[in-house]
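ugh ok fine here u go
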Amino acid sequence: MDRSVNQLSRFDRGCRRAPPWNRLGRFTRGGHMRGEVAVVGLGGMGRAIARNLVRAGHETVVWNRSAGPAEELADAGALRAASVAEALQCPVVFSVLSDDASVAEVFLDSGVLGEARPGAVHVNVATVSVGLARRAAEAHAAHGIGYVAAPVFGRVGVAEAGALNVLAAGEPELVDRVQPFFDVIGSRTWRLGELPEQANTVKVLGNYLIACAIQSLGEAISVADAVGADPDRFVELLASTLFPGPVYSGYGSMIARRSYRPAGFTAELGRKDLHLALDAAAGRAVPLPFGELLGDVFDRAIAEGRAADDWAVIAERQPRGTPSPA
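structure:
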């Protein structure tokens, strides 16, 4: 018996040193994926998160609907899962999906939770509604799976630098379990409560405030432009004095230059998050009057074909004309 165990141990160590296409010993044992952590959904954000986990030395399993991103990460040292159910054999699974519908389709309506590794923890990075957060928490609990909401602040470039702000909510012991992974992908973890919906609410409120800032920037820049003030210099002034930080400097520059491609966050996604904020407020009977106005602004921008532009494009609803003569 001892000799067999030693041989298996040597084989496993050899597999760990083998190239990705020959890591046969790393896929399954006892019905479970050998990876420490899985990442489901490999858009720009998901790829950045998975790549940082690989670089940090974590045995990382990846899954995506289309093969390209998973192949790219496999070349970097990740393991490819054949299905979401297989990814759920890892003890920790991050999902980086786009909205309520995709989370429901992939995890809640597909039956995969019934096939998950007992005691696994699902970390949902998506920005989702309060209602979806509650439904997900209940569904995971019913299957004996931990559930942590962890939406983030930061664009893809921030994710690539491992500097996201992670907004975490869930049972404290579950957050403790996944904190080492948060330390890899983010610069700070903000623990916001024991109910996953609390993190999702804070995330959509943050995005609501960004949308308000974009709208107010568009209004102010249009007036500055109309009197002949240089829009770039005006934005530089604001970001250097009254409103330091990435919102006024980054979005202000886009608006001043009227440049909205490539989109870091699209107008379509912005409208989605705005409505999530409105729904969260309505659920507590709290009015958001600016939000109602912004809803119309987003609708008009998207109706004009700007859905794929950066959400700063809503500033184009403001007239920008030739300066009037002195």
